[in-house]
């Protein structure tokens, strides 16, 4: 029997991230949001195409995440492109800071979801792929798809 606290409702996924980056590790973090941001997030009014995270002054900050203003909020709504703080333990922040200081590694959000009533982000430690790496990834995925298709046809006979 599933409790309400464990229900996960995915709001948005960064599908291009797995294509553009090689994912090394993932971590779940909470997001510090205003009330109107939570309401917009529940409606799915979020864009995370160019979003990334950085470690500054012992905090992990999420930048370029666009959460549209909630339509019922008056003039005092939130800034859609503001920098948002991610909620992690100090030890996790130190590990991420050490790894991002290595050359070529960055933090990118993979998905934003609600776990129970809390907004969470799945953050990935990743290395950017070159153009030829992307071609190889596409070729490998297509070859795997063809193999599965061929084995499926053989088992049906």
Describe the structure.
Strands 1-8-9-2-7-5-4 form a 7-stranded antiparallel beta sheet. Strands 3-6 form a two-stranded antiparallel ribbon. The protein has one domain: Small Protein B, Chain: A (Beta Barrel), CATH 2.40.280. By secondary structure, it is an alpha+beta fold. The chain is 31% helix and 36% strand. The longest helix has 26 residues, at 131-156. The chain contains 4 helices and 9 strands. The mean pLDDT is 85.
Summarize the structure.
This protein has helices at 17-20, 35-42, 90-100, 131-156, and strands spanning 8-13, 21-31, 46-47, 52-56, 59-63, 66-67, 84-87, 105-115, 118-128.
Q: Considering the protein shown, what is the CATH homologous superfamily?
A: Small protein B
Write down the Rg.
19 Å
Dominant shape: globular
Q: Uncertain regions: pLDDT < 50 for 5+ in a row?
A: none
SSE string, helix = H, strand = E?
EHEHEEEEEHEEH
Residue-averaged pLDDT: 85
- Quickly count the domains: 1
- What percentage of amino acids are in beta strands? 35-45%
Distance between the termini: 40 Å
Count of helices? 4
CATH C-level class = Mainly Beta
**Major sheet strand order:** 1-8-9-2-7-5-4
Q: Do you know the CATH topology?
A: Small Protein B, Chain: A
């Amino acid at each position: 029997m599933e409790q309400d606290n464990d229900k996960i409702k995915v709001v948005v996924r960064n599908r291009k991230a797995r294509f553009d980056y090689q994912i090394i590790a993932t971590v779940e973090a909470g997001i510090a949001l205003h009330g109107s941001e939570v309401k917009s997030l529940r409606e799915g009014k979020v864009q995370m195409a160019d979003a990334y995270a950085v470690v500054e002054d012992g905090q992990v900050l999420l930048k370029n995440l666009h959460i549209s203003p909630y339509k019922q909020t008056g003039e005092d709504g939130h800034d859609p492109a503001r920098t948002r703080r991610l909620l992690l333990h100090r030890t996790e922040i130190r590990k991420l800071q050490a790894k991002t200081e290595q050359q070529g590694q960055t933090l990118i959000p993979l998905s934003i979801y609600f776990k129970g009533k809390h907004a969470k982000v799945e953050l990935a430690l990743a290395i950017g792929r070159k153009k030829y790496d992307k071609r190889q990834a596409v070729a490998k995925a297509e070859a795997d798809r063809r193999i599965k298709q061929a084995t499926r046809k053989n088992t049906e006979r």
